[in-house]
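Progress report, Aim 2. The chain analyzed during this reporting quarter is listed below.
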Amino acid sequence: MSGMIKKIDYIQNMAVYQDFKWNLKEKNNTEVSFEKINIFYGRNCSGKTTLSRIFKVLEKKQLPDKYQNLKFSVSVGKKTVTHEDLSNENSSGSLPIVRVFNQDFIQENLGFIFDEERSITGFAVLGKHNLETEQKIKELYKELGSKEDKTGLRGKLAKAEYYFHQSDNELKSLSKKLEQRLRVKATEDRDIAIKYNKIFGDPNYNIKNIEKDVLYLLKKGYQPINSDQKDKFEKICREEAKPRIEKPVFPSLGCLDLISEAKELIERKISISKPIQELIENNALAHWVRQGMEYHRHRETCAFCGNIISPDLWPKLEQHFNLESKNLEQKLDKLIDWIKKEKEHITTFPKIDYTIYYSNDFKVLKDLEARIDRYLLKYRDCLNEIKVQINNRKNNIIKPIEFKAPEIDINEYGNIKNTWEHIIDTSNEYTDNLGEWKTKAKESLRLYDVHCYIQSIGFLEKYGEIVEKRKESSGFQKAKESLEKEISNKENEIEKLRSQLEDKQAAVKKINDYLEFGLEYPSFCLKVVNEDKKQYQFEIVRINGKIDNEKADAEKAYNLSQGERNLIAFCYFLVSLESINQQLNENEKPKPIIWIDDPISSLDSNHIFFAYSLIKTLIVDPGNFQQLFISTHNLEFLQFLKRMPGRKKQFFILERDKDKGDIRLMPDYLRNYITEFNYLFHQIYKCAEGEPNNNDYHMIYSFANNARRFLELYLYYQYPDGDEKRKNDRLKEFFDPNMECVNFIDRVTNEYSHSLGLERGSLPIETIEIRQVAKKIIAKLKENNKSQYEAFLKSIGVDEEEIVKNNLGYYLRNE
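Predicted structure tokens for the chain:
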């Protein structure tokens, strides 16, 4: 991505920039954008380093771990770069080329300054290149070519990527369309979706499940179920589990014993001592006589005709109907009772209760029930046949009768019991396994439903298109990956060749050259030690004005000031920029966007001109940058930056209200009259004359330090005797004769600027006191030297008459 950074659209969740939005406009209401050179002024903790870290994110192409949920947007040229682009491989490759100098850079690249065991990050240095190696690198770059110019391997890669992405997009489109058809069947259409099917539906069924089912169906050997199987499976799915069935108690039937007993009695022969021939020949008469004997046993006359019974009749009858015949008759009567009980047993035969059985057992149960009915009917007939034969023998007890055994399948009774018990066992097994069978039935119905659906949408044809397109896309991908591998190999070869050009000694010499160039009488320099190790180690040594890179006995420097550390680090940064610019030129890429954050320590102001000279000489004058950003807290350094050549410059001020950081256009007075004196006067003036405003809370909070510093400068020029002991006396002389005013101002400026006690830190700032002190200082300045006071106002762009009008309006509104 080429083009300058126009603005930072927004920053969220990053230190003081929790919810920053770009809202900078000129006086004519046009939006402010960054220029070629951009200068930022801000006091410590105003957000300078935090802002540089946004640019560091663009340089590293990754979000820092330190900030949770960091979000940002930066306008670059005609495009926008956001935090989301860093995780997008396609987007991150087109981010602008950025290089940032800040404290993070020092820690990452010059760790030896803080830790003796750490090393310096090496780079190739101009002037020490091997010509043969340089030529090889150029040839490799030529082979690599350019995507933009469609040359070399990168040009071929661009073409391969185009065909691959085109084919891959077509593949994704085909897959997406077919997947959507499957989604309809899986979840989206309530009328046909498997998820909502009342018989075999699954509330958790989704696109993954139907894709799995389709893959199963595509395997060879799947046979769709037929209509009978479908009906059967649907019945199983609807079936509710029934309780286990107890086996019935079957009555014990004695048919065989009964037949055997009847045969023996009916066919039994008995002997008669004196038979009466007439009774033998007439069974009915014999039966009538036998019954009559029971009725007339104790009578003397016949109950039928009334005649007297002859006394000799009884012996004759007793001899005809003897004891043997009586015993047979009694046994035949017992058989009749037995038959009666057998008939009663039949009535206790268990009935089939269809409600406790499954519907798929109904057919066999009906067949069984018919068998039972037939058998019991046959059994009754058998008993009746036996009874008839028993009665016949009783009617002619003297004469044996041939027994005719009834025709009945005795084994059928056992078969019926076995069949019924088998049905019960099967039903109980069905109950025990119904859950598993339901699952299998649902699976069979679901697969059949999916099978019918994919047939209806022409799935196989569409799937075939996808397979062919995948083969095509895979071919393009392999071609792309082959080119990528070849390009990577050549890039690695270039890196290896570059490592041959890397000369840490030359890098150190370059840094020392800058130190000697910028410092007329340098007191320290950088030195390589332990060259025999694979990784060089470095140390800073003290010198006496002349840097000798070959001298080995220089004394190691300890307790470096922050300014000295920053100076060495800044020189290293500038040397590394030379290497980066060389690589960019070789690849015909745009120059880098550079951010330099506070290169001057607040404790080492004597390095200000040196830092400015390096920036101007090595970066600005030769134009070794696409866009330059410099931030500083030092007003003196700001003066030098104002002189930076070039018309396209923009000045900003970084301010902080409590925990909220903001970027604003630099006020005209600070841009045009950039002295600390003017700045401090403006801060005091705003406290004294400004309308109360929550946005100016930081100004109130910083007032004590600003007022103390302003009075020190002002009174020094008023009374330049240099006597520190007379500091309070000069304050009294300035405000004389108002001693009460002097004591009040001295208490406020010292208490709020120097007090370290917990009791002071835990109390809120007294805004009224601050404004009172500010008004007294402004009033005294005006009283002592009105022309000077008016010059102060002019320097900060204030029209006092307009201010008076505004204040009068404010107080009238609030009366």
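The radius of gyration is 58 Å. The chain is about 55% helix and 10% strand. These observations will guide the mutagenesis work planned for the next reporting period.
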